[in-house]
Specification:
The complex is a heterotrimer of chains A (about 120), B (about 140) and C (about 525). Chain A is built from 3 helices and no strands. Chain A has about 120 residues and is an all-alpha fold. The model of chain A has no long low-confidence stretch (mean pLDDT about 85). Chain B has about 140 residues and is mainly alpha-helical. Chain B has a two-stranded antiparallel ribbon with strand order 1-2. In chain B, α2 packs across α3 and α2 packs parallel to α5. The longest helix of chain B has 28 residues. The termini of chain B are close together. The mean pLDDT of chain B is about 85. Chain C is mainly alpha-helical and about 525 residues long. Chain C has 22 helices and 2 strands. Chain C has a two-stranded antiparallel sheet with strand order 1-2. The N terminus of chain C is likely disordered. At the A-C interface, α2 and α3 of A face α7, α8, α11 and α19 of C.
């Protein structure tokens, strides 16, 4: 099962990298979204997969009665999901604003901060 | 959205969802639930109200600015860390006080206040985003 | 709940003995900045009161950090676990000399920026949240320096990242949005890679507590996965720290936000990347560092040279400074590449110096802009006559960033070069010195053009040109601008003249990083 998930993580990373290398901002944002999910799946898989056994201790005992799923990666993934979700909303707004202000979604044409024409620094003195 | 049915139902639906969000928040102690998910339910309640009756109605209903709600939640969460300072314990150590109430005992604890803080932060922050997006759509 | 609690013996899982009050200094900066940030959000409409709230909160943080450093120096590494859960179950906050020193320096820089911003951030930008973001940024940065848990480090990275996004677009100008796209995308990819590496590390050793990781990685007999992880961490933190060749987001974005904002970015953000590299490479995976040493060395020299040549090639002073940030990062990386105790203490000293000097330099640029109304090296000029005091401060700061004596940068570079020579890595020492020479030329040009030359580019020597339109008189400059500049300059001079204190703290920090027994002992109460 872990092998299958590892392959899936690899596929997601590959797809995300492909999208991140694109020139279109929207594709880059999609790449970031996929990258975040790939990492979440990676953490989940790294914590070892156990089926059908939630990590809940029964009322009358102090230890789980059988080997349970590892709750820590789930907590980590939950944190990471919340963070990547909020970053993605920020990016969507930023991308939209960039498209409005700069009139392009092609990153090679976003040259307002770094204009194309090069000014030589003063050479004398 | 200007449909009569939604506008009639929305206030009741919102009230019910807000009540449910508090239920989820309090349930979060020993069972699935908690401040984060409760806060999200409350935000969706406000969002439905906003879709039905407009953003300004929601802002009036919320009374305080969403960012102030979020900030007060943060303050509450920070305060819930402090009690262990006075007991010589590490930060965030949970403190429990059973308060008798109508024959039963209610457990008041610092994790409860922390969770309420999380609830308020989520309600404030997400509804602030949702309302400004809805405002733009109008 | 209360009934079941008494039935079990919790001493195996929880801290049962009383915790000294001084240990609370570990969480005090975080609680203070968080509460202060919330307070400034609630009072966002009172834009006159905001700076004062922020300044008093940051002053409290500063005092608490002084006390923390003092506590660490007299008692060794300090640990506190959240919620009383014993490590590795609870999240541990652990301060060693490195973390405490950087946290203290960060609060000094933030305080200076908060004071400087009183005059340079407009009231409507305060309402958009300059001070709340500044406080949350400090919260994230101090949290990163003081945490002892690698996933918690990731969370603090995100806290500082989201606040920096807010600060970056403050003002909502075209160039800012352009810069923000590049800054945000690259930094988010870096933190995502960091998270991926952390997930894999957890899969490998089954723990997130740094002291526990250090112990378990050492006992791990298969070195392949550890080396792979070290490389991934190096890439992730290298991106954050702006190391060559993943540094191009920095000059693309650092000149776009408000200059006070850039001052705090240049002072703190890249240094958090360097700090994380120190932690991971030296404390957690020394084996990975040994394996990567040559690569880190090459990257360090390439970074230094990119920074120095880039600084020489710029016309815009803001962008020159951005390249100087990069040159400094290269110097810090060279210490990690060498890896002996002298070089690591050099890196720690340089990080501390770099926080102060880069904040001060960007504040100086803001001051120069106020005096002259331009950022271009061609148009600026004649500042010496109008503000001799400003020219003196500028000379000190510019010489200090190039690493000339008697200022703080000199001692840091001395330690780095001495460490490189001791470890028989002469080429690293050569790289440090060569980039120092080039940096000296670059900063010398800035001072000559902006201060010494009588006016703009074609001014004949010795003739005072007319003041440029939109520029201010030195008497108009308010105390809130002079004070931070003078304080930072004074610190740089004092550390340069009396370096023994910082040097011994850096050495102590380096010692605990290289030999983590004290660190591990502090977290696990000497049980291991």
């Amino acid at each position: 099962m872990e092998t299958l998930f590892a392959v899936l993580v690899g596929v997601l990373f590959g797809g995300a990298t492909y999208l991140l290398l694109s020139r279109k901002l929207v594709r880059i944002l999609l790449g970031i979204a996929i990258l975040g999910n790939a990492v979440n799946l990676l953490i989940f898989t790294a914590g070892r997969l156990t089926r059908d056994v939630p990590p809940i201790i029964p009322v009358n005992s102090y230890l789980p009665v059988e080997a349970t799923a590892n709750p820590l990666p789930q907590a980590l993934v939950l944190t990471a999901i919340v963070i990547s979700f909020s970053f993605l909303t920020f990016f969507l707004v930023l991308g939209y604003r960039a498209y409005q202000e700069l009139g392009t979604d092609d990153i090679l044409e976003m040259r307002v901060a770094e204009p194309k024409e090069h000014h030589e620094p003063p050479l004398g003195y | 959205m200007n449909t009569l049915i939604l506008r009639t139902v929305a206030p009741y639906l919102t009230a019910l969802m807000l009540l449910f969000s508090v239920f989820v928040l309090l349930r979060g102690h020993n069972e699935p639930g908690g401040g984060f998910i409760g806060g999200l339910i409350a935000v969706s309640a406000f969002a439905i109200y906003g879709i039905a009756c407009g953003v300004s109605a929601v802002r009036r209903a919320m009374k305080f600015h969403p960012m102030s709600i979020a900030a007060s939640g943060l303050v509450l969460a920070v305060l819930s860390v402090l009690p262990s300072l006075f007991l010589g314990q590490p930060a965030m150590t949970s403190q429990w006080y059973a308060v008798p109430f109508l024959g039963t005992a209610i457990d008041l604890s610092t994790p409860l206040f922390f969770d309420v803080g999380v609830y308020l932060v989520v309600v404030g922050a997400i509804s602030s985003i949702a309302l400004s997006l809805e405002e733009r759509a109008d | 709940m209360a009934a079941t609690k008494t039935a079990i013996d919790l001493s195996a899982a929880m801290v049962t003995q009383a915790v000294p009050l001084a240990d609370w200094l570990l969480v005090a900066p975080i609680l203070l900045t968080m509460a202060g940030g919330a307070l400034t959000i609630i009072l966002r409409k009172k834009s006159a009161a905001q700076p004062w709230i922020a300044i008093s909160v940051i002053s409290l943080v500063l005092l608490s950090n002084i006390a923390l450093l003092n506590h660490v120096l007299s008692n060794g590494v300090v640990t506190m676990v959240m919620g009383s859960w014993l490590p590795p179950f609870g999240i541990a906050f652990t301060a060693d000399a490195l973390g405490a020193l950087l946290a203290l320096t960060a609060s000094v820089a933030t305080l200076c920026v908060a004071i400087f911003a009183m005059n340079s951030i407009a009231a409507n930008e305060r309402r958009y949240g300059f001070y709340p973001f500044l406080l949350m940024l400090l919260c994230g940065v101090t949290g990163s320096f003081l945490t002892g848990d690698i996933f918690n480090l990731y969370v603090w990275f995100e806290v500082l990242l989201i606040s920096s996004f807010g600060l970056q677009v403050l003002g909502n100008e075209k160039t800012q949005i352009d810069g923000a796209v590049k800054y945000a995308v690259l930094n988010l990819i870096a933190t995502t890679l960091f998270l991926a590496a952390t997930g894999l590390l957890y899969g490998l050793v089954g723990t997130l507590n740094m002291a526990d990781i250090a112990t378990k990685v050492k006992a791990f007999d298969n070195s392949g996965p550890v080396l792979g992880l070290a490389t991934l961490y190096f890439l992730a933190f290298g991106m954050k720290a702006a190391a060559f060749p993943v540094n191009f987001w920095l000059p693309a974005s650092y000149h776009t936000p408000r200059l006070v904002v850039t001052a705090i970015f240049a002072g703190l953000l890249t240094k958090v990347g360097v700090y994380a590299l120190l932690r991971v490479m030296i404390l957690l995976m020394p084996e990975g560092r040994d394996w990567l040493a040559s690569l880190i060395g090459v990257v360090a020299i390439a970074t230094m040279l990119t920074g120095a040549f880039g600084a020489l090639a710029q016309t815009d002073i803001r962008r020159t400074m951005a390249y100087l940030v990069i040159a400094g990062i290269g110097a810090m990386l060279s210490g990690i590449a060498v890896g002996n105790q002298v070089a690591i203490s050099g890196t720690i000293f340089y990080s501390m110096h770099s926080v102060l000097i880069m904040t001060a330099l960007y504040l100086l640029v803001a001051f120069m802009y106020q005096m002259s109304g331009t950022f271009s090296l061609r148009e600026i000029g004649g500042l010496y006559i109008r503000t001799p005091l400003g020219a003196g401060i500028a000379l000190i700061l510019l010489l200090a960033v190039a690493g000339l004596p008697p200022f703080s940068g000199f001692w840091a570079k001395l330690l780095l070069v001495a460490g490189a020579l001791e470890a028989d890595r002469g080429w690293v020492a050569f790289g440090i010195l060569a980039s120092g020479l080039l940096t000296t030329i670059a900063v010398g040009r800035i001072w000559i053009f902006a201060f010494w030359r009588g006016g703009n580019e074609n001014t004949v020597d010795g003739i005072q040109a007319l003041p440029i339109a939109g520029s201010a008189d030195a008497s108009d400059v308010s105390a809130s601008i002079w004070l931070p500049l003078i304080v930072l300059t004074a610190l740089i001079v004092v550390i340069g003249v009396l370096p023994e204190g910082v040097m011994s703290i850096s050495e102590y920090g380096a010692k605990t990083l290289i030999d983590p027994t004290v660190y591990i002992g502090s977290v696990f109460g000497g049980a291991q």
